[in-house]
Structure formats: C-alpha cells, structure tokens
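RECORD TYPE: inverse folding
INPUT: structure tokens
STRUCTURE:
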C-alpha cells in the first residue's frame, strides 16, 4: 500500500468548482472572517484580552467562544487543554495532572484544527483530536471553540471544533520585535526545579514579514496511583459447588455462611504505586509572509513539536497470582448489592484482608518519543473587484515510538500459588529466600481519605520487606511496544464573491482533497531459551523463572516444574542483593500514604527495554504482533458552498459540505504462535487482509443571529455533523489475555497448573465501523452590556444518529496448548444508535471598571454547563448509563484584578462525576466505573516592572486535588490518582 499522496480524484461537481475558485483557507481559519464592523483591539492585559475574546464571540458566524494570547500567558496554563477548560462547555481530561484532551458539551468527539485546517499531532497519530501535552501553549496565539457547524469549517467534530491560531508576521508592529520568558516550576511532591524557556522574534517590513518562536521545557510530575492497578480485570467469583464451567470460581464457601449462593466483587490485584512522569518538550514555529503585489500575498508556516516522556512507577502490589486463587478476600462489613443474573448474591466491601499468595515489588517504565512537523503554504488573492480566493497546500508527518518494560521483584517465595523452579535436582520455591509458604495477609482499606494497603508488622521474625535478601526478579517482560508513523497531504481551493445585492452579502465556496496514511507496527521482546537437555530452542516473552519451556524429564504433557521439568533461568536467580550497582533503590515516597520503605528495581533502568532485557536474558529480538499492526489509507474529497445574508436586524449563513471518504485498510492474518510463554497474538504474519470502504456525507447547516437590540443578540443554529474515525478502531486485531492456571483450576480440569489459559480478549479493530454522525441544534441569547461584559444563556440538543460504543460478547478461545476449553469475554467496538446529548450553558463576564479607585481593577467570569446524555446502555440494576466521560455538570469561576501594572487571577474548575468505562466483570452484570467530582483551583499573578519586563508567578492545583474512582456504587471505591500542586516563578520580556 502506498503511503504518500495518490493523485486526487475529484468528482465532476468538485472539478467544476475547482476550476473557478481561489480562496482563503481562513474561511475556516479564523472563525470569524469577521466583518468590517468588528472593533480592532490591541491585546495586553486581562481586561483587554477579555474584550478581545468577547468581540470575537459577538461578531462570529455561529456559536463561538474565544481565548486570546494574553489569556494563555496570564494563567498557569501548562498545556492548551488547561487554557480551554475556562470556556463554557469544555471539560478536560488529565494525564499526570496536565490537561491532555478535551470534551465539548460532554463529548470527546471534537476535532482540532491548526489555522483552520487538519494537522498531525504525534501523541495521537490515528485520531483527529491531538494530545495537547505535545504542544507548548506558547506556540499558539489564540483559540476559537466553534460549537455550531458552518459549511466552510472542516467537518470532524460532533459537539464542536477547536481552531488553534498561530501568530502571523503581518500582525506584528513595524520593524523588529520580540519576546522571551524564563521560568522555573516545582511540585509539592516532586520538589524538582523544572525549567522553561521561550524566545520569539519577528520582523515586519513593508513587503515581507517573518516570525519565529521556540519553546523548551522540562517537567517532573507526581502521579501516584492507589487501589486496583487494572481497571479491566474485575471479577465476581461465585461459590461453585456444582463444578459449573467458571475458571475463576472457587469451590469453597467464600463468605462462610453455610451456603453456596454468594459472589464477591474483586480485582486481580491492588497496590500502592509511586509514579512520576518526566517530560521534555520542544516546540517551534516559523512563519513567513510576502506581499507579492497589491493583490497577491504568499504565506508559509512550519509548526514543529517534539516530546520525550517516561512514565515510571514502583510500588507494592498484592494479587491473587492473576487468577490462581479467587477465594483470597476476607471481607469486613460486606454489603449485599443484590442478585446476579446467575442467581448469586453479590457482596462488596471497603475493608478487606487480602490473603495474598503473591506480593511483588513492582517496577515499570513506559517511554514515548514523539515528533511532528506540519508545513503550510498559501497563496492568497484579493482583487479590486468582488472576488477573492486562496490556494492552500499542507504536508505533514509524525512519528511515535512507545515502549513498556516491567520487572517483578517477588517478595513471596511462590509456594502459596504453586510456582516453583527446578534446576534438575527437583522442584523448589521459585524465590527460595522469599516469604512463605503461607499467603501474606494484606489489609486493604478504602474508608479513609486515601486507600491504604497495610502489611503485617512481623513476618517470619522480621519487619516485612526490610530484608533485601527476600527480593528477587522472578518475572520480567516488555510488551505493548509499537512504532507509529503518519503522513498527511491536503490541497484546497476556496473562493469568496461579494454581492452588492439587498440581503445577499456574499458566497463562499471551495473544494478540498486530502490523504492521510497511518502505519503501526507493534511488537514484544523475545529472548531465546535452549533446551537444557536436548536440541531445540524457543523464544519467550514472559521470562518467568517458574515456567518450563521443555519436557526435560520425558514424561510428556505440558512442561511443569512440579512434574520434574527444568524451568527457565533456573540456574541464575536474580536476587536483588546480587544485581549490578545502581539497579536497586529504596523508596518510602508514596505521596500522602505511609506504606513504609521497600526495595525496588530503579524504574530508570527500565527505560531502555532492549538493554535491560538483554542484561538478564541475552539476545532479545522483536516479536511482531500482526493482529495489532496495520496500515490505513484515508482519502477524502469535499466541496462546500455557503451564502451569507444580513441587514440591520439579522446576520445569517446557510450552506452545505459534501464529503466523500475512501478507506483502504490493511490488516494482517494472524498465523501460528512464534513463541512460548507469550500472548497468542505474537505470531506469524500469514498475509494481508485488505478492506476497501467508502461512504458519503451531506452536511447542511444554518446559522442566524438576530440583533434584538444594539447589544442583545439571539442566535439559532442547526446542522448535521460527523467525525472522522479513529483509524486504530478500524484496523486493530484480536488481543488475547492469558494467565497461569494455578492449582485449583488445574485440579478441576486436569491440566498443568503452569498452563497459560485464556482469560479474556479485546477486539481492537472493526473495519466495518461507521463514523459518529449527529444532528445539532443550538439557541443562544447574548447580552453585551459593556465592552468587557457578557451575560448569555444557551440550550443545545445533539441527536446521535450513529456512534461507537464498547460491547462485550463470549467466544471460545484456545489456551496456550491450542485446546478450546471455555468461552471468554471479548471486548470490542461496535456502532450504536439513538444516543442523545442535551443541556444548557450559562455565562457571565464583567470588568468592574465602573467602581471607584482601587475597586475598579476587579473583574469576574463565571460559566456553568448542564449536559445530560443517554448511551442506550444499562448498568447493574438496569439503570440508563450516560455517554462515557460526560460530566452532567461542569463550571468555571474566575476572579481577577488588574491595576497599576499588577495583575492577579484566581480560577476554579469543577466537574461532576463522570463515567470512566462500562465494565462487564466475569459472571456479573454491566457496571459503571465512575470518577468522583473534582474541583481544581489555579492562580496567577504578575507585575509589570516597566514596559519591557514582567515578573510573574502561578500556582496550579493549589488544593492538591485528586481523582477517585468507584465501581457502580459510591461506597465501593476502587482506585485513586494523586496529582500535585505546582508553583511557577518567571520573568517575561518584550521589545
């Protein structure tokens, strides 16, 4: 499949329009193509930026909110998402405490444009919404959030479109000008001094102008995790005295009440994790404009981002050996939640003694290298007559490399779950010096402010975890690694014709053709193991010293240490005390929770998976995962037409956008497994599966603004929208999860306890998915009662004609030995129908400049959004479930002050509870995993020393807000993410 632009194939209609048009790609580029009546405002300071934003909103062609450059510079906005959360209807999602992605009116199906056109972001190569952690906010001059569709705005967002606007050289003052800043920030938990630098310089001459900006910053972010570490591994094991088919159901009376009609809600593991994210970001823009003649302007832009990050974690985890022992909970004060569909009563508890067969000193590192470059070329014509136009060409590329690497340092000896090593002299504990053979009683408690995991004070005559000789790396692996790359090419021609006719003001029209190619190659690291007593070798991913790869004793059957077979690496135990210098560190930092001090493999040693894995098990190679590797080519051809009407009483536009989408999807036929002790999807690539699809969308839209009074505007809009598909949801394959069978299941099914059995699966791609499609209606009343004041109210309704949702079903899946023994749950994406989103927005902004003296410097802003949604899914008790990640209520409140060179702003951002995922634990009805309400408080302050220098400080998350999650019931908490307060001090200069 080709990965660069193929010849555009335009429809006859598009070809006809192409011959006749030139355009301004900024018809969508600056929401406003605003009329001459728009007041030109020089932005400097909070009050001026407020006036600029309100001016943009007032004269916009639809329902629009705007943020100007001074807004971004004057709040503690680490990322663009942090800035956008102040817009009514915007909700953000955080990554390590930083704003990463956004919802508009409760929906994440939002497209983001760069100067009015599609662009590539390396953090989200397969989607049209970028990961804003990639993009330094200092590269952007303004942002417009368009909540109603217009026919000239590139379709792609269901609930809204965000347009990032970079600064243009011809907007600079004449001659040379520039700006620079230097700042340092620190977190309340990380305590490191993190630098940031930005330099911008430009020249605006009579006929040409140039502007260049470079930004670089480094951050270390605390990001602790408490509770369950795997959202998707929830189960409801039930008492199984009849031997019914249920691999995770014990044959014991778990509750001890003398019957076998109960079930207990549990996850496979719980832990307290120290987790820090380190990021190094660099961004740059270079823009050039030349006035070729009185009628022609040439513009070109380069937008570059580069980010390296590492998410490192270490902590103590207690688990049931990932499926080996399900009767491991001793619930204190359990609550009966009702009856499951299988007739068992479900019990949950918030105070639990975990009789843990395995306790692990867990270390893990996830790394990313991301880079993207977007080039834009424009030739604009503005004649003396009624016609103007622009030709625009965009080419972009992006790439991302992601790695994951894990080291599990056993503290237990393995005997509690039957895991043994065998060097040929007979089976023994896999970690001979570890604690055991009995399970370790770990007390898990969710009833306090933060979840706690308490360990017994004394085990086998010593403080638990205090002896380094108890620790050994028993298991290590590197999985979910991938390389992605994407290319994007766009050619568009747009035109505008102004009329001197009554109500008809102008017509705009254009054609566009684009091609986006995305390739993903996923892999694991495999180490070769030779037969210790004969010929042959196998490649292994899960390098677990309790697993055997060969039938070394000749007894037949599945290799097993207990059966007498030699295990992998049995002659080289990796005790912590014998590891290379610098590999092991002690840690007692678990944020607000006091867990004690333990030994860990330093996660920094895991940043390079090949180096780490080779140091323990030499000669690792990449093992391909063909089911999760793919290539997708997406071609679109579109044409739009729009007419604008106006008189003294109203402004209106109506038109359509027609889009033809063609998809060539190349998936891989998954063949036989190429390794031992590894997921089934690590396999041979047995050829290509090619799917060719196309679909058409006709998207009409109407926007009307009535000037009820000079400062009172009533808006109404209607339109159809669609969003481009996440290409990963089209092309990904089937991923099967497996776990060691363990003694209980081995006894009931007559299999080896070391056999890796299928537990669940994920279907990551569905080439038949249709895009999200919706019909949107908005009505807004806006009262501009001063140049810096607004009171507005809006109602909206989004009727989802089709959407993508998660579904679960049962299919038979083979165990590692190729035998089908049971059905497992498969999770995947399907199209749903009939969802809705409706709600209202209230907004108030005002500068109190009418007050006397000191008080005239104050101002405020407040907004509130109510968005109610229905997904068509039901929860545990049959209750209707909303769309994922929608908060029914959200709001923002700001108090600011500006006078005599001093500026201060205090902001609060609130989100009500939101659905994180809909989960179907084993043997259980659907349940909702919810995130509790959050309120984040930020502030900023600055002082203008003179016309050229400003000193400033900012604080984000002042109250150290955290995010707690619960499973279905508010009193059934299951996890918590801890974020830190961050303070920044800096100096900004301009000339």
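DESIGNED SEQUENCE:
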């Amino acid at each position: 499949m080709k990965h660069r632009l193929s010849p555009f194939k335009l429809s006859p209609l598009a070809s006809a329009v192409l011959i006749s048009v030139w355009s301004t790609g900024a018809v969508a580029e600056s929401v406003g193509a605003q009329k001459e009546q728009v007041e030109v405002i020089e932005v400097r300071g909070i009050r001026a930026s407020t006036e600029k934003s309100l001016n943009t909103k007032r004269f916009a062609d639809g329902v629009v909110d705007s943020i100007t450059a001074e807004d971004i510079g004057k709040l503690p906005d680490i990322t663009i998402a942090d800035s956008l959360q102040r817009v009514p209807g915007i909700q953000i999602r955080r990554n390590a405490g930083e704003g990463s992605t956004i919802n508009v009116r409760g929906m994440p199906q939002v497209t983001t444009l760069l100067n009015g056109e599609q662009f590539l972001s390396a953090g989200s190569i397969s989607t049209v919404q970028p990961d804003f952690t990639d993009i330094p906010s200092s590269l952007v001059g303004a942002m417009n959030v368009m909540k109603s569709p217009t026919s000239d705005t590139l379709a792609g967002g269901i609930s809204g479109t965000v347009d990032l606007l970079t600064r243009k050289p011809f907007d600079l003052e004449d001659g040379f000008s520039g700006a620079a800043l230097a700042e340092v920030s620190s977190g309340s938990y990380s305590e490191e001094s993190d630098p940031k630098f930005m330099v911008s310089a430009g020249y605006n001459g009579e006929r040409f102008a140039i502007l260049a900006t470079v930004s670089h910053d480094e951050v270390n972010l605390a990001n602790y995790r408490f509770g369950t570490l795997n959202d998707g591994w929830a189960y409801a094991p039930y008492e199984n005295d009849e031997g019914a088919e249920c691999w995770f159901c014990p044959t014991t009376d778990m509750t001890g009440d003398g019957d076998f009609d109960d079930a207990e809600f549990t996850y496979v593991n719980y832990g307290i994790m120290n987790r820090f994210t380190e990021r190094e970001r660099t961004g740059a823009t270079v823009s050039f404009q030349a006035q070729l003649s009185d009628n022609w302007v040439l513009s070109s832009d380069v937008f570059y981002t580069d980010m390296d990050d590492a998410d490192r974690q270490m902590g103590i985890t207690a688990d049931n050996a990932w499926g080996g022992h399900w009767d491991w909970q001793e619930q204190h004060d359990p609550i009966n939640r009702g009856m499951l569909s299988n007739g068992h009563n479900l019990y949950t508890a918030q105070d639990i003694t975990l009789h843990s067969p395995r306790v692990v000193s867990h270390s893990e590192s996830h790394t990313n290298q991301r880079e993207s470059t977007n080039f834009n070329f424009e030739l604009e014509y503005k004649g003396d007559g009624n016609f103007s136009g622009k030709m625009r060409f965009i080419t972009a590329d992006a790439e991302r490399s992601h790695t994951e690497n894990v080291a599990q340092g056993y503290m237990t000896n393995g005997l509690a779950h039957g895991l043994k090593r065998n060097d040929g002299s007979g089976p023994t504990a896999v970690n001979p010096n570890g604690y055991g053979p009995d399970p370790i009683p770990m007390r898990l408690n969710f009833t306090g402010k933060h979840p706690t995991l308490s360990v017994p004070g004394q085990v086998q005559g010593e403080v638990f975890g205090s002896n380094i000789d108890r620790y050994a790396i028993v298991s290590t692996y590197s999985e979910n690694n991938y390389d992605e790359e994407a290319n994007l090419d766009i050619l568009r021609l747009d035109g505008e014709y102004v009329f001197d006719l009554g109500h008809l003001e102008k017509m705009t029209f254009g054609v566009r053709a684009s091609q986006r190619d995305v390739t993903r190659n996923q892999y694991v690291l495999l180490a070769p193991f030779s037969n210790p007593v004969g010929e042959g070798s196998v490649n292994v991913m899960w390098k677990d010293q309790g697993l055997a790869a060969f039938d070394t004793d000749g007894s037949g059957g599945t290799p097993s240490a207990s059966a007498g077979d030699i295990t992998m690496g049995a002659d080289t135990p990796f005790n912590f005390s014998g590891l290379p210098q610098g590999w092991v560190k002690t840690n007692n930092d678990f944020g607000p929770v006091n867990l004690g001090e333990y030994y860990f493999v330093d996660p920094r040693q895991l940043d390079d998976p090949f180096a780490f894995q080779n140091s323990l098990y030499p000669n690792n190679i990449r093992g391909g995962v063909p089911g999760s590797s793919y290539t997708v080519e997406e071609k679109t051809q579109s044409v739009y037409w729009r007419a604008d009407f106006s008189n003294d009483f109203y402004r209106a536009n109506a038109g359509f956008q027609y889009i033809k989408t063609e998809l060539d999807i190349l998936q891989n036929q998954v063949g036989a497994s190429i390794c031992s002790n590894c997921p089934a999807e690590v396999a041979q690539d047995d050829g290509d599966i090619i799917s060719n699809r196309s679909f058409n969308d006709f998207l009409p839209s109407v926007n009307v603004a009535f000037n009820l009074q000079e400062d009172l505007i009533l808006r109404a809009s209607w339109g159809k929208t669609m969003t481009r598909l996440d290409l990963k949801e089209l092309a990904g394959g089937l991923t099967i999860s497996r776990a060691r069978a363990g003694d209980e299941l081995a006894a009931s099914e007559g299999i080896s306890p070391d056999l890796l059995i299928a537990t669940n699966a994920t279907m990551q791609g569905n080439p038949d998915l249709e895009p999200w499609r919706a019909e949107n209606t908005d009505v807004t009343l806006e009262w501009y009662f001063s140049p810096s004041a607004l009171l507005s109210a809006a109602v909206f309704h989004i009727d989802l004609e089709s959407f993508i949702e998660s579904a679960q079903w049962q299919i038979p899946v083979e165990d590692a030995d190729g035998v089908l023994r049971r059905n497992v749950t498969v999770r995947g994406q399907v199209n749903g129908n009939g969802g809705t989103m409706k709600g209202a927005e209230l907004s108030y902004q005002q500068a109190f400049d009418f007050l006397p003296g000191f008080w005239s410097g104050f101002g405020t802003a407040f907004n509130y959004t109510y968005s109610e949604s229905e997904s068509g899914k039901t929860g545990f008790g049959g209750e209707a479930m909303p769309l994922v990640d929608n908060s029914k209520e959200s709001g923002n409140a700001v108090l600011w002050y500006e006078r005599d060179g001093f500026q201060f702003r205090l902001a609060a951002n609130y989100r009500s509870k939101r659905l994180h995922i809909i989960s179907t634990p084993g043997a259980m009805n659907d349940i909702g995993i919810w995130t509790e309400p959050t309120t984040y408080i930020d502030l900023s302050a600055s002082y203008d020393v003179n016309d050229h220098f400003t000193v400033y400080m900012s604080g984000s998350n002042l109250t150290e807000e955290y995010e707690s999650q619960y499973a279905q019931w508010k009193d059934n908490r299951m996890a918590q993410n801890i974020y830190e307060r961050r303070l920044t001090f800096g100096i900004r200069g301009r000339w």
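NOTES: The chain is about 5% helix and 55% strand.
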